[in-house]
Every structure is written in structure tokens, then in C-alpha cells.
Write a structure and sequence with these properties.
about 15% strand, Alpha-D-Glucose-1,6-Bisphosphate, Chain A, domain 4, five-stranded antiparallel sheet, alpha+beta, 10 helices
Length: about 290
């Protein structure tokens, strides 16, 4: 039968549909009773040539429940409150967690907020050196993750040598600020619109006044406010930052003993130390002069 098939190329979308349909047909042809055990499913996958790692990943994601995309008015206009990214990466759990710990501290200017059995929650580092590091953009970085309220890291071992890593950044305080800004600007717009409508009613006939009011109201509903568009851009930048961490982890650029070897970074931190010492010395001199 295979010899009679036309020699045509199958694009990726068609390939996914064909494989999905073939799996449905095979599942319908099998007597699974009330279901299959995970071992049975792995055995079936091996028979049809599906790598066990991918089946384990799919089972994990099914059991954990994929993070549903936030819907509704706020998400549509202001972006999600939680920005997340996940991926399967090579390595064992302890190794990956150690690598991420080092990266979050050295390269994202974060510190541990909580360590829980299944995840670690990070927040931005505080203090003079942390602010200098972010302010100078040490290492040529933007430190996007430090702008989140917190960042949650979850590492799940799928099989020996592979883990599923999920990163989730809570940007809800940033979104709340954008919402307040939009409400404030909308309130000003409504007041001005009402004033314009009153003037219009005084000089033109009622239908024109009603039409002007409808235009003003439609303008407030048709398009997201500027604050909303800015917040959606921040969310996209945060999403990119999370994906970049996973990229580096996947390609071995993040290691347990990773440290920033940038000589410029060290130079800037040395400058920060000198500035702090100079301020302290100046304060000591002033105190000496004020002594009777």
C-alpha cells in the first residue's frame, strides 16, 4: 500500500493532524477498558515509535494541567497577571536547580523569597549594590525579571537526564498600576467628554448631541488605553526574558558554578564601593568639623 501513495511532501501542520488522527484511530481500535496505566501507555508508545521521554512529558503536563491562558477584559487590554514559560531541558533536577540558583542570583539580581517542596520563589535583591547593578546594567543585562513582584521556578524530573522547568513571573502589581492609570485618564476623558456634550446640546439639536456622546463613548471602549498597551509590552518583554533563561539552560549556558566573568561588571562594582566609601569618609569629616 505504501508503494501506491503519491510522492508528496507533508508540511508540519498536516503532519501534526495526520499523527493526531492516526493516534485516535489506533486508540479506537484498542480495548483499553477503563483506561491504561502509565506503563501500558509507554509500552504502546514504544510499539508505534514514540520516544518515552516525550510521552512522560505529555503525561506530566496532562497531570499537572497546563497553565491556562488568562482570559477576560483585563487580560485582553492589559495583558496577563502571570507570565509563564516552560520547557523540557537536559539534566537532572539537582543540577538544574543549582544552575538556576546561581543564575538568578548573579545574572538576574534576585534573591530567594521562599523555598517550598515543589518550587522556589524569588524576588528582587535589595540594597545599595543590587540597585547599582541594575542601574548600571552590569553585564549588559536589563534585569527584566527583577521588575516582577516575584518569580517562581519549578523543576520536575521526567526521567534520568531530562527535566521539565517552568518559570512564572507575577506582574500583577505592574498591571494594577496600569489599570489605575487607565482609570484615572479615562475619568478625565469622560469629564471632558461630558462637558463637550453639554456644549453641543446648547448649540445644536438633540440628535447631534446624542451622536457626539456615542462617538465619545465608543472611543473609550474601542481601543485599549495607552497604559494598557504599555503594560502589554512589559508583559511581552517579561515573557521573552523567561524564554531566554530557558534557552540558556537548554543549551548549557547556565551551569551550577556559573558566575558573571565580566571585567566591566567587576569594575563597576569596584566604583560603587569607592563611591560608598567616599560618602562615608565625607560624613566622618563633616562630623569632625562640627565637634566643638
Amino acid at each position: 500500500m505504501a508503494d501506491n501513495l503519491p510522492q508528496r511532501r507533508i508540511d508540519r501542520d498536516a503532519l501534526e493532524r495526520i499523527i493526531r488522527r492516526a493516534a485516535e484511530l489506533q486508540a479506537g481500535d484498542m480495548d483499553t477498558g477503563d483506561g491504561l496505566t502509565e506503563q501500558d501507555l509507554l509500552k504502546v508508545g514504544a510499539e508505534v515509535g514514540i520516544d518515552g521521554r516525550f510521552l512522560r512529558q505529555a503525561m506530566y503536563e496532562e497531570g499537572a494541567g497546563a497553565r491556562a491562558a488568562e482570559g477576560g477584559f483585563l487580560a485582553r487590554w492589559f495583558g496577563p497577571g502571570i507570565v509563564a514559560a516552560g520547557r523540557v531541558v537536559p539534566g537532572d533536577k539537582a543540577q538544574i536547580e543549582a544552575a538556576l540558583d546561581r543564575w538568578m542570583i548573579d545574572s538576574e539580581a534576585l534573591t530567594v523569597k521562599r523555598r517550598l517542596p515543589d518550587r522556589t520563589v524569588w524576588e528582587k535583591q535589595r540594597g545599595f549594590f543590587a540597585e547599582m547593578k541594575r542601574g548600571f546594567g552590569v553585564g549588559g543585562r536589563q534585569y527584566q525579571l527583577a521588575r516582577a513582584f516575584d518569580v517562581t521556578v519549578s523543576v520536575t524530573q521526567l526521567e534520568s537526564g531530562y527535566c521539565h522547568v517552568e518559570l512564572a513571573a507575577d506582574v500583577s502589581p505592574l498591571r494594577d498600576g496600569a489599570i489605575r492609570a487607565a482609570v484615572a485618564s479615562s475619568g478625565t476623558f469622560v469629564v471632558l467628554g461630558g462637558f463637550a456634550l453639554t456644549l453641543a446640546g446648547a448649540v445644536v439639536i438633540a440628535p447631534v448631541s446624542i451622536g457626539l456622546g456615542a462617538v465619545l463613548l465608543g472611543a473609550t471602549v474601542a481601543a485599549p488605553p495607552l497604559a494598557g498597551r504599555m503594560q502589554k509590552t512589559r508583559s511581552e518583554q517579561m515573557q521573552l526574558a523567561l524564554e531566554q533563561v530557558l534557552d540558556r539552560l537548554e543549551y548549557g549556558e547556565i551551569r551550577p558554578r556559573h558566575a558573571v566573568p565580566d571585567r566591566v561588571a567587576g569594575g563597576l562594582l569596584n566604583i560603587a564601593v569607592e563611591i560608598r566609601n567616599a560618602i562615608a569618609d565625607g560624613a566622618d569629616v563633616r562630623r569632625m568639623r562640627l565637634k566643638p
